[in-house]
Amino acid sequence: MTEQVLRKDAARNRERLIAAGRDLFAHGGLDVTLNDVARHAGVGIGTAYRRFTNKEELIDAIWEQQVDEMESILRDALGTPDPWEGLVLYLERSLDAQARDRGLAEILAGRVWPSHYDRQRDRLAPLVDEIADRAREAGVLREDVVGTDLILLQIAITAVSTTVNSNALPKRSNDVARLYSRYLAIVLDGLRASTRQSTLPVGPLTVEETHALLDPRRR
Fold this sequence. Notes:
By secondary structure, the protein is mainly α. It is built from 11 helices and no strands. The longest helix is centred in the first third of the chain and has 26 residues. The termini are far apart. Keywords: DNA-binding, Transcription, Transcription regulation. InterPro entries: DNA-bd_HTH_TetR-type_CS, Homeodomain-like_sf, HTH-type_TetR-like_transc_reg, HTH_TetR, Tet_transcr_reg_TetR-rel_C_sf, TetR_SbtR-like_C.
């Protein structure tokens, strides 16, 4: 077997492992093992460990794809002419992605910290801030809401998807799978600028405080 064939085979196995990892993490979260991923991909355990030294390296590779996808959502939202519609689009699509992918939700909630997460986090956080700033400056988002609020609200809403097991309510499995959308609608009513607003009892976290809170290294 030539070296070129070996390289193609290795690249193909790597992509199979990434696809299998995304599938398993989406349904089972990040507790899935690399051995589980290898079996799901239809490759040997040894092959899996040649492509990825450990599960964290596999998560890093998957996270690279997910960051690209999240950035695309954010840029689509910023490209929406109406600032409020852009904010809603971002929250709806981001929460839908997390509801369908438990692993993504756990990563965004700080469950793991890939070695290159800091750099990629910096690609997303400024865009979230820009979405909030644009809506606030347009007078459609309440004046005391900032980008970090949008991030933490998503973590709170996503907890619905990770806590509620649709298998427990088979007759309403479709409703349960999208239960997060109910709470997003309630939250959006609270985010929209209006003349009747309660004064928030405490101020928002800064970007640095939010990242420190979600950094698993603190644990």
